[in-house]
Design a protein that fits this description.
The complex is a heterodimer. Chain A is of the alpha/beta class. Helices cover 44% and strands 10% of the residues of chain A. By secondary structure, chain B is α/β, with parallel strands linked by helices. Classes of the chains: A alpha/beta, B alpha/beta. Chain B: Keywords: Oxidoreductase.
Chain lengths: 316, 341
């Protein structure tokens, strides 16, 4: 439980710092923060085996990487577009990867990663490596046609994949019920015979429980499963979105009543974790985040020659 | 009757174009991701849902293939949809509908059915958007017979061309250079943006007018070299011409298909030299087409090989944006090359 708390707090403080760096102009372009949704990536990925299972997600990807223990320095340096970044500055906030963790990115096109997830699952089955694929997407992406093409293939071929809908209630400025004929998204797999579970995505223990169930189902060879995680993003869709399509009260109310970090903190206190320990943890995390930000600010930009590397595998 | 003129930036001019067109023809509807309630990510459709109601200006799910498919169906049955694809980088799921349906319906029905849709989509770089928010895919569409491709470079043209596109009976891809929505860009990214209000092209009539499709504009007359450009690069080229003092004739193509070949040929025959400028990657880019056409039509008038100044043949980078972008340094070098022989 303490480890969940540590990871969620790291994501929260990291994202707050990223927001600050954006404000200072050190991060440019597009940057989507994970604040409010921390329990989802932390709870789900804790049930996976790193290096054996594979994970793929959309553009709001900082949290998923931090939850996998990927070095915050390398992530922050990618955000600032530096050569030391995990994609050597060539991917940016939305496009980050880690072969060691079988983390397949970080994809900027809404919904496109879901089909790729089915492909990852196919390889797990093909090679019989016992791994499962986890493909995250949002409530907005849930309306892309290729998601359903992937559902059909995944069930037809009984692929070991967990489809995860991170339902943070808003596809940029459009709320779920204004964009979705069936807004109970966990039911979206029904016509493909894919079972779905709706989960409280603000409660990391509930998320972990659902993940264990899903992993057991998929590893047993029963085919895909769909999890809908009900969550909420506190910030705008991206840094340029003032989020005027919802009230300040709505956001505040979620923060007050359902914040995943506050919630777990209370449980930790009830379990007898001392205030001093929690304070020390907070201090350690702030140090890690500060170090990451300094690293990201001081690392050099990539050399111009980098522009032409990695375009194709072979040489031009 | 165009009425009074007002100062508008490109967003306001585009908004005004849709407004004016919708006010004249109730067959025009606007659809896309966040275009209604939210008013569009760049605010190009702000206020239109309030004015025309939710049956004429409405939000769609994030489903680009569906958005264009539905629009083609609407158009075939008599509406004039103006779908927005939020970024040109998101248009690829809709490519099937655009290429196989919108572009070819008229041909395969021997003219019985048409798809008069105008797809608005912001494109181009210079905003630090990385590979999924910066692309210039116009060459993919100019390659498809049956589509028209339009790219404005200033508020006045944006409004006039957009109304012309909406009223046109063929499907039009209307690329909006998002780097210059708020002001022209001289290529010097370290200088502050100058707002459109400081430039004459921001005087835009309130009412209805059109800028015809297929007509280029000579932005600046000159005698020594012809520069062919469109969108953001018109301004980058213009600024470099002024900085270097080259006596160049700058042609803003405005419409790539149908192309105003007469204006291009007339200019190159006068100057004897030609330079083509675009942000998109070089190989099979629209510059290759322009270069071939100039060679076909003006071979005996050319004093030097046609120069292309374009984005490099790489994905649009996150970092190193200004190394990718064909800015003042590369344009200046190209002027030297084209003037050499």
């Amino acid at each position: 439980m303490l480890e969940f708390y540590r990871q969620m707090l790291l994501i929260r403080r990291f994202e707050e710092k990223a927001g600050q760096l954006y404000g200072l102009g050190l991060i440019g372009g597009f940057c989507h923060l994970y604040i409010g949704q921390e329990a989802v990536a932390v709870g789900l990925q804790s049930a996976l085996e790193v290096g054996k299972d594979s994970v793929i997600t959309g553009y709001r990807d900082h949290g998923h990487m931090l939850a996998y223990g990927i070095d915050p320095k390398l992530i922050m340096a990618e955000l600032t577009g530096r050569a030391a970044g995990i994609s050597r500055g060539k991917g940016g906030s939305m496009h980050m990867f880690s072969v060691d963790h079988r983390f397949y990115g970080g994809h900027g096109i809404v919904g496109a990663q879901v089909s790729l997830g089915a492909g990852l699952a196919f390889k797990h089955k093909y090679s019989g490596d016992g791994g499962v694929a986890m493909a995250y997407f949002g409530d907005g992406a849930a309306n892309q046609g290729q998601v359903y093409e992937s559902f059909n293939m995944a069930e037809l071929w009984k692929l070991p994949i967990i489809f995860v809908i991170e339902n943070n209630q808003y596809a940029m400025g459009t709320s779920v019920n204004r964009a979705s004929a069936e807004d109970q998204l966990y039911r979206r797999g029904e016509s493909f015979r894919i079972p779905g579970i709706q989960v409280d995505g603000m409660d990391v223990l509930a998320v972990r429980g659902a993940a264990e169930e899903a992993v057991a189902w998929v590893r047993a060879g029963k085919g895909p499963i769909l999890l809908e995680l009900k969550t909420y993003r506190y910030r705008g869709h991206s840094m340029s979105d003032p989020a005027k399509y919802r009230s300040r009260d709505e956001v505040q109310s979620v923060r007050d009543k359902s914040d995943p970090i506050d919630h777990l903190k209370k449980e930790l206190e009830a379990a007898g974790v001392s205030e001093d320990d929690l304070r020390k943890l907070e201090k350690d995390i702030r140090a890690i985040v500060t170090e990451a930000a300094d690293f990201a600010e001081q690392s050099p930009e990539p050399e111009p020659e980098e522009l032409y590397t990695d375009v194709l595998v072979g040489q031009y | 009757m165009t009425g009074e003129s007002r100062t508008m930036n490109m967003i306001q001019a585009i908004n005004s174009a849709i407004d004016v067109a919708m006010g004249r023809d109730e067959k025009i509807v606007v659809l896309g991701e966040d275009v209604g309630y939210f008013g569009g990510v760049f605010k190009a459709t702000e206020g239109l849902q309030k004015k025309y109601g939710k049956t004429r200006v409405f939000d769609t799910p994030i489903s680009e293939c569906g958005i264009i498919g539905v629009a083609v169906g609407m158009a075939t049955y008599g509406l004039r949809p103006v779908p927005e694809i939020q970024f040109a980088d998101y248009i690829y799921p809709a490519l099937d509908q655009l290429v196989s349906e919108a572009a070819r319906l008229r041909y395969r029905s021997a003219g019985e059915y048409t798809a008069p849709i105008t797809v608005r989509t912001p494109f181009g770089g210079g905003i630090f958007g990385g590979q999924t928010h910066s692309q210039s895919p116009e060459g993919i569409f100019t390659h498809v017979a049956g589509l028209k491709t339009v790219i404005p470079s200033n508020p006045y043209d944006a409004k006039g061309l957009l109304i012309a596109a909406i009223e046109d009976n063929d499907p039009v891809i209307f690329f909006e250079p998002k780097r210059i929505y708020n002001g022209p860009f001289d290529g010097h990214y370290d200088r502050p943006v100058q707002p459109w209000s400081k430039f004459a092209e921001s005087a835009v009539p309130d009412g209805h007018y059109t800028v015809p499709l297929g007509k280029a504009r000579v932005v600046r007359e000159g005698n020594d070299v012809t520069v062919l450009a469109y969108g953001t690069m018109v301004h980058v080229a213009h600024s470099v011409i002024q900085e270097t003092g080259v006596d160049a004739e700058l042609v803003d193509l405005r419409t790539l298909v149908p192309l105003d070949i007469e204006t291009v040929v007339e200019s190159v025959k006068k100057t004897g030299r030609c330079m083509v400028v675009h942000e998109a990657t070089k190989t099979s880019g629209f510059g290759a087409e322009l270069s071939a056409l100039v060679q076909e039509h003006c071979f005996h008038w050319l004093e030097a090989p046609v120069q292309r100044v374009t984005g490099w043949d790489t994905p649009y980078p996150h970092s190193l944006e200004w190394a990718y972008f064909p800015g003042p340094v590369r344009l200046t070098e190209a002027f030297k090359r084209v003037m050499q022989d």
